[in-house]
């Protein structure tokens, strides 16, 4: 369904709220003195096919919002993806290319800075950026409970400037602090921005005791799991050892940890309802990257295959027309679109360049740039740095002899080390790399020269 169909489906809600959806709804709300609250819920390593574990989340944010069926991240790695959410920029623009250099992010170019400057109360609860020093306070947040590292029980937190251990299961600890932040809305009339980021379902994906033995639905894998012939894949994929049993175990552990996230989301929903703030709160829910369940033998992220880059992606804002079970939106959307969406809803024009586009308007892209950098010199078993042209029907990927140096900057020859092309209509599980042993004439027929030129222009812009 295109944007026109989505708008028609939401017309009754838009009329009731007098906000012209897609035509400056956020600006209209701000002008009327009703700037929305902003809630971003970001899970860690949550792939797309996990809705079994989050029924209450889906009931709220899809039943009273919209599911973006083609949700992606532009870099399938934690810190770069989170920096793209905060800034609306591709990683090659915001500078956080790997998990080791969070301080490369220009904190001026973030939604938390813009919102706080515009009078919003801002709070961060959970995981921030990988390799961020726990004693360093996160800029432009008025309140925070910053967790580090990925520990599910009795973790260490920067608690509004004091680093200490807080007993309890991390998802519950984060939930309770987020609820306390929301409760202040009863006496503080400022609109607020809350970034709620539980560790789940990141490894070691330790479930809450009450869910430790929960039976999950049987999963028999995808055709890409236990792929019989990987000779057309890069060396690190040919040598990967994941099996269906591996994928099943990772999936089960992820689902069990997400059950507690679902409980936390329901608690947040109930608190917003009690505060009378459900209608005019813009809620965005997504994962910071996907995860493969032994697809092509790979049981991680960081690769251009769809399970690694696709994520659940929900948005609800009833007062802005995104509510009442809005029709699914099938546009290609990404984490870089969150910042422009938030800013438009708040009536703020960004004073920095963004790469994404507001989801409140009609913009629809026909493809997306996805990129990833290898941190440090190339290691056997690790992907080379890569960039990818991804559309609904095809994907073209180039791997380069590049890596990030001690400052997080790309170094190397830039030589193309490997290439892949997949016809996603005929081969959605990416089993047949059509560039493997392809002739120049076959590449031309696939349109590879044009794709390569587009990819090069976008990744170097």
Automatic annotation (TrEMBL):
PROSITE patterns: TAT. Keywords: Signal. It comes from the Bacteria. CDD domains: G6S. This is Sulfatase N-terminal domain-containing protein. It holds the Pfam family Sulfatase. It comes from Kitasatospora saccharophila. Residues 36-348 form the Sulfatase N-terminal domain.
């Amino acid at each position: 369904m295109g944007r026109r169909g989505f708008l028609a489906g939401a017309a009754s809600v838009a009329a009731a709220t007098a906000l012209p959806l897609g035509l400056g709804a956020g600006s209209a709300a701000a002008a009327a003195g009703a700037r929305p609250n902003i809630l971003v819920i970001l899970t860690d390593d949550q792939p797309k096919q996990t809705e079994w574990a989050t029924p209450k989340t889906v009931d709220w944010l899809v039943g009273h919002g919209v599911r973006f069926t083609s949700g992606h991240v532009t870099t399938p790695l934690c810190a770069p993806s989170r920096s793209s959410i905060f800034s609306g920029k591709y990683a090659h623009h915001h500078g956080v290319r790997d998990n080791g250099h969070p301080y490369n992010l220009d904190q001026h170019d973030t939604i938390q800075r813009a919102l706080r400057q515009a009078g919003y109360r801002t709070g961060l609860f959970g995981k921030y950026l990988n390799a961020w020093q726990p004693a360093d306070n996160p800029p432009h947040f008025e309140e925070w409970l910053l967790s580090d590292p990925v520990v599910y029980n009795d973790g260490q937190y920067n608690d509004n400037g004091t680093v200490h251990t807080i007993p309890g299961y991390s998802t519950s600890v984060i939930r309770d602090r987020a609820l306390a932040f929301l409760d202040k809305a009863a006496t503080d009339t400022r609109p607020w921005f809350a970034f709620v980021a539980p560790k789940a379902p990141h490894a070691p994906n330790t479930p809450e005791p009450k869910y430790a033995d929960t039976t999950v639905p049987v999963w028999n894998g995808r055709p890409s799991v236990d792929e019989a012939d990987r000779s057309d894949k890069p060396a690190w994929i040919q040598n990967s050892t994941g099996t269906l049993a591996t994928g099943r175990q990772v999936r089960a552990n992820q689902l069990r940890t997400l059950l507690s996230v679902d409980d936390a989301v329901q608690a947040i929903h109930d608190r917003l309802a009690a505060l009378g703030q459900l209608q005019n709160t813009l809620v965005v829910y997504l994962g910071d990257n996907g995860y493969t369940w032994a697809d092509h033998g790979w049981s991680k992220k960081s690769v251009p295959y769809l399970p690694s880059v696709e994520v659940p992606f929900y948005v609800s804002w009833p007062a802005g027309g995104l509510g009442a079970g809005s029709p699914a939106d099938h546009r290609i959307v990404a984490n870089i679109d969150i910042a422009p969406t938030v800013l438009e809803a708040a009536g703020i024009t960004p004073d920095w360049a963004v790469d994404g586009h507001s989801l409140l308007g009609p913009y629809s892209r026909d493809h997306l740039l996805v990129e990833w950098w290898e941190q440090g010199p190339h290691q056997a078993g690790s992907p080379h740095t890569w960039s990818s042209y991804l559309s609904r029907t095809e994907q073209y990927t180039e791997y380069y002899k590049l890596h990030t140096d001690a400052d997080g900057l790309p170094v190397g020859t830039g030589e193309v080390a490997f290439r892949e092309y997949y016809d996603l209509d005929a081969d959605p599980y990416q089993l047949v790399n059509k560039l493997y042993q392809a002739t120049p004439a076959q590449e031309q027929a696939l349109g590879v020269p044009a794709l390569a030129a587009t990819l090069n222009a976008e990744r170097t812009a």
